[in-house]
Amino acid sequence: MAKYLFKSEASTWSWEQQVAKGDAGEEWDGVRNYQARNVMRDMKVGDQGFFYLSQADKKIVGVVEVIAEAHPDSTTDDERWECVDIKAVRSLPNHVTLADCKADERLADMVLVNNTRLSVQPVSDAEWGVVLELAGE
Fold it and tell me: Residue 12 in contact with residue 52, Cβ under 8 Å?
């Protein structure tokens, strides 16, 4: 099972909104970056990801699961753009900030640390374990 990180601005789509969608989940729509789109094209149902709040918050707050593989993004008629559907799995006991990630040498190669602008990104199994450790799991 592959791991990922999904970034959102709390003012656009918050963790609370994601949780409120329950098992029905929500499209991860509006992504207009080819690299991020290509990452979503690789996702499979059951893959998990971190839910990261960008902008002012800059912290990982929860875990999500892919519930639908890449399909046309309903927010555009442009066939180039696709998205996946995700549902909230659980909140993390402690939020893990971008500063926490940058301070931990085990995460030096993490995409989040090196490319903070990419809205959907892969996370290695080792990085996944470190973040969960930092979160208190």
Answer: no
pLDDT at 116 over 80: no
In this structure, the number of other CB atoms found within 10 A of the CB of residue 42 comes to 13
Give which of 31, 46, 50 is closest to 111, Cα–Cα.
50
For the chain, the domain total comes to 1
Please report which confidence band the pLDDT of residue 7 belongs to, taking 50, 70 and 90 as the band edges. Answer: very high
Rounded Cα distance between 34 and 54, Å, is 19
What are residue 49's DSSP bridge partners? 4, 64
Q: What is the CATH number of the domain that holds 33?
A: 3.10.590.10
Q: What is the DSSP letter of 54?
A: T
- Residues of the domain holding 128: 3-134
**pLDDT tens for each residue of 83-114:** 999 999 999 999 999 999 999 999 999 999 99
The answer to whether residue 52 scores a pLDDT higher than 90 is: yes
Question: Where on the phi/psi map is residue 136: left (φ > 0), alpha (ψ -120 to 50), or beta?
Answer: left
Q: Identify the CA nearest to 83 among candidates 122, 109, 120, 134.
A: 120
